């Protein structure tokens, strides 16, 4: 019985988190890196996978998520240029919500669940919500960790800034 309850609680949390996730409805070509730069104000450029190394000595980096920080995905076969997402909420030690562009091709999504599936709980391997299936994706993705902007915004400010960040990313800001 305890085992069933222990398994049910995390699944319920994911289900509740998913209910709040939403697609902004924008289907324009917006890449993750320019969108994340416009949303957070970080002075990093180029492919998302290179942001981890560019941030060294410029921004705090680490294995713990904070609202407003950037989760940087390592390059992989499925993500040759890596990926970057902005943490919109920290739900627990191993669960967050993110705002991201182009995880689903030509979409900006808000409050999408991401879970840490690494053995050590260090966010080095994650699974990400897949909107078309309305469930967690089956693949696990390696990450570098989190970059903390100089002045990270809270959830409400991030959500309010999404339309302007989309516009800036589309304009090539």
From TrEMBL:
Origin superkingdom: Bacteria
Keyword tags: Signal
Keyword S-adenosyl-L-methionine in annotation: no
Record bears the keyword Cell cycle: no
Signal sequence region: 1-17
Domain Peptidase C51 span(s) in chain numbering: 7-127
Residues that span the membrane, as ranges: none
Pfam families, A to Z: CHAP
Protein name: Peptidase C51 domain-containing protein
Naturally occurring in which organism (per UniProt): Rhodopila globiformis (Rhodopseudomonas globiformis)
Lineage, top ranks: Bacteria, Pseudomonadati, Pseudomonadota, Alphaproteobacteria, Acetobacterales
């Amino acid at each position: 019985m305890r085992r069933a309850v222990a398994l049910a609680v995390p699944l319920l949390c994911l289900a509740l988190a998913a209910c709040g996730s939403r697609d902004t409805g924008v289907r324009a070509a917006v890449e993750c890196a320019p969108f994340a730069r416009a949303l957070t104000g970080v002075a990093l450029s180029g492919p998302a996978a290179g942001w981890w190394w560019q941030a060294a000595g410029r921004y705090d980096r680490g294995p713990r998520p904070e609202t407003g920080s950037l989760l940087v995905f390592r390059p992989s076969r499925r993500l040759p240029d890596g990926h970057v997402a902005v943490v919109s909420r920290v739900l627990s030690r191993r669960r967050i919500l993110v705002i991201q562009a182009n995880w689903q091709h030509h979409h900006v999504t808000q409050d999408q669940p991401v879970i840490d599936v690494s053995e050590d709980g260090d966010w080095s391997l994650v699974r990400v919500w897949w909107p078309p299936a309305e469930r967690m994706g089956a693949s696990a993705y390696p990450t570098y960790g989190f970059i903390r902007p100089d002045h990270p915004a809270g959830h409400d400010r991030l959500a309010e800034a999404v339309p302007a960040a989309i516009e800036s990313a589309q304009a090539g800001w």
